[in-house]
Amino acid sequence: MRKTDINELYGLFLEHPVVTTDSRRCPEGSMFFALKGDTFDGNSFALAALQKGCAYAVVSDEACQRADSRCLLVDDTVLALQALAHRHRESLQGKTVIQITGTNGKTTTKELIAAVLSTTKPVQFTQGNLNNHIGVPLTLLTLKDDQGFAVVETGANHPGEIAALSRITDPDYGLITNVGRAHLGGFGDLGGVMRAKGELYHYIKEQGKSGIFLNVSAEHLMDMAEGIPAVRYGLTGASGAEVWGETVDCSPFLRFRFKTHQTDWQEVQTRLIGEYNIHNLLAAVAVGIRFAVPVEKICEALASYTPTNNRSEYHDTGRNRLIVDAYNANPSSMAVALDNFDRLSAEHKMLILGDMLELGEESETEHRRIVERIRGCETVWLVGEEYRKVALPGMRCFATAEEVKPLLASVTGRTILIKGSNGMKLFQLVGLL
Q1: Residue 193, pLDDT above cutoff 80
Q2: Partner residues linked to 100 by β-bridges
Q3: Which pLDDT does position 310 carry in this prediction?
Q4: Cα separation values, 268 from 40, 298, 320, Å
Q5: Are 179 and 103 in contact (CB under 8 A)?
Q6: Do 176 and 197 form a contact (C-beta atoms < 8 A)?
Q7: What's the mean pLDDT when you consider all of the chain?
Q8: Distance between CA atoms of residues 314 and 208, nearest Å
Q9: CA angle 277, 278, 279 (to 5 degrees)
Q10: Are 355 and 386 in contact (CB under 8 A)?
Q11: Which of 90, 166, 259, 366 has a C-alpha 20 to 30 A away from that of 125?
């Protein structure tokens, strides 16, 4: 059977520049990629995708091509998707591409940077959390060839993934938000996390790219970034910073101020919960300054940004005050969330914490560390089997979020931090409080 090479595939993409991997969503004239995984085979839906309106289906099963000549045969549909995305990115000579990774804060930083840059030029950026080996190519394939910016978020839970995504994305600039203890089942330890995230720095240096945005307040990042051109930002007093800032207030929304060598102090009232977000905000300031965004526009963009997707959200429901950070959780993000909650001036504090997933052999140890650092809360509810193993007296345990729901009608007058891995589904509790 005749196979389709990347040149032919890209030519067809230019004629049909909408890609889908979901046979339930097939825009007229789009291209369907029949992805194949351990529990699914998109080849089974290729003909249906064509019937629903797709112009072509990229498949790895010869039977599909025999059934319909609009099926384009390749050896591996995932690799074909990635190759197509890289080819398209290489054609975008007028666009500056910034790649972001890190243990915590990737999505918030991406959105803050996009908000700042969009005040002066068109910006396209990763939607939601499409930051893996499928999501990144899909993001790149939505980019248009204009004189603007692309901000691409990349995630990983195993060594080598950031390197592979960097080769596909081919960024002009890189930014690592931080490194911490997460995905230890895949990385092994903090050193493994550092090496994995550092693959972005390595790519920038090896390929002679424009440089990185470097948080000089993060000791690990400083060690990893040696010899790479950098725009430096950090907390007030950090050595070598070109952009620096500090917290003014955090009750409950973060207000901060920043300064550069060219500007006076600028104070911004944000809609973000959590003092830890100051690093994400300063990253956005540094990017804005590098690309000559007027400082007043930087301030307006950061003040206007409203978090979504259960990240650093604040809700006053009339019954309770909620701090919702239930999209993701790892030992690093959980620790800073608890520290911030400790500092918050409020009565009748309550914690609803869900298990931190993908910690491998370190899971019990890391959950015990979190439990032992909890203090100053009247009520602590723990959701998941990992927390159940290490709960202290007085802490109430639940297997799932479903077990919690019937009890929430009686919870009133509380300030509640809700945090856990997305798989624990604690976001389902928000509407009941």
Answers
A1: no
A2: 153, 175
A3: 64
A4: 48, 10, 27
A5: yes
A6: yes
A7: 89
A8: 42
A9: 90
A10: yes
A11: 259
C-alpha dihedral, 78 to 80 to 84 to 89, nearest 10°: 50
48: left (phi over 0), alpha (psi -120 to 50) or beta: alpha
Amino acid at 31: M
pLDDT of residue 189: 61
3-state secondary structure 273-326: ECHHHHHHHHHHHHHHHHCCCCHHHHHHHHHHCCCCCCCCEEEECCCCEEEEEC
CA 78 to chain centre: 21
DSSP states of 327-391 as a string?
S---HHHHHHHHHHHHHS--SSEEEEEEPPPS-GGGHHHHHHHHHHH--S-SEEEEESHHHHHHP
pLDDT by residue (tens digit) across 320-369?
999 888 877 888 888 888 988 888 888 899 999 999 988 888 889 999 99
Residue type, 99: Q
Rounded Cα distance between 46 and 56, Å, is 9
User: CA-CA distance, 139 to 151, in Å (whole number)?
Assistant: 10
Token pair belonging to 59: 């498949």
Q: How crowded is residue 48: how many other Cβ atoms within 10 Å of its Cβ?
A: 14
The 10s digit of each residue's pLDDT in 127-156 is 877 889 999 999 999 998 877 999 999 987
The CA distances from residue 4 to 50, 317, 377, in Å, are: 17, 56, 61
Q: What angle do CA 41, 47, 52 make, to 5 degrees?
A: 115
**CA–CA separation, 166 vs 174, rounded Å?**
9
Structure tokens at 242: 């070109």
Please list, in sequence order, all residues whose beta carbon lies within 8 angstroms of the beta carbon of residue 116, skipping any fewer than 6 positions away: 284, 285, 287, 288, 293, 297, 298, 301, 302
Lowest mean pLDDT among 62-66, 187-191, 193-197, 404-408: 187-191
User: Do the Cβ atoms of 372 and 403 come closer than 8 Å?
Assistant: no
Structure token pair of residue 287? 């990017």
Burial tier of 181 (Cβ tally within 10 Å: 0-12, 13-18, 19+): buried
- CA dist 285 and 244 (Å) reads 9
**Is the peptide bond between 331 and the residue preceding it cis, with omega within 30 degrees of 0?**
no
Beta bridge partners, 231, equal 213
What is the side-by-side strand order in the sheet with 96-101? Answer: 123-125, 149-153, 96-101, 173-176, 211-215, 230-235, 243-250, 253-260, 266-273
